[in-house]
Amino acid sequence: MSMSCTASVTFDVNVLEVDSVPPVIPQPDDITVTVPLGTPGIVITWDEPIPTDNSGTVSLVSRTSAPSSLFPVGTTPVTYTFTDPSGKKLIPWHQSSLNQKI
Question: What distances in angstroms separate CA 9 from CA 6, 13, 20, 39, 58, one per listed residue?
Fold first, then answer.
């Protein structure tokens, strides 16, 4: 009489994709507008930045001001935050300056 013994094992193989490259965007130019003396502010508009990423997907997380917002006299930093699917962030910014004409 012959006896047979069998053993088996199961395990998982995980292949992870590592993305170490954050989104890319050209740095926008600062915006400067001059208004007549006594003007409290003005609506300023711009083209929103369009980021790219090696993943093909970028999401807008936040922005401090949107195009066509009212800006007071002075300098106001505008910040956009973008992220890719792996959580890499890009934070470009520019300044909007509103000067009064004397």
Answer: 10, 13, 35, 77, 41
DSSP code string of 25-47: -PPPPPEEEEEETT--EEEE--P
Q: What is the pLDDT of residues 30-89, one digit of tens each?
A: 888 888 989 999 999 988 888 888 888 889 999 999 999 999 998 888 888 888 888 877
Count CB atoms within 10 A of the CB of residue 70.
Answer: 11
CA distance 31 to 6: 75
Residue linked to tokens 């300023």: 44
Dist CA 83 CA 96 (whole Å) = 23
- Residues whose CB is less than 8 angstroms from the CB of residue 9 and which lie 6 or more positions away in sequence, other chains included: none
At residue 15, the pLDDT reads: 77
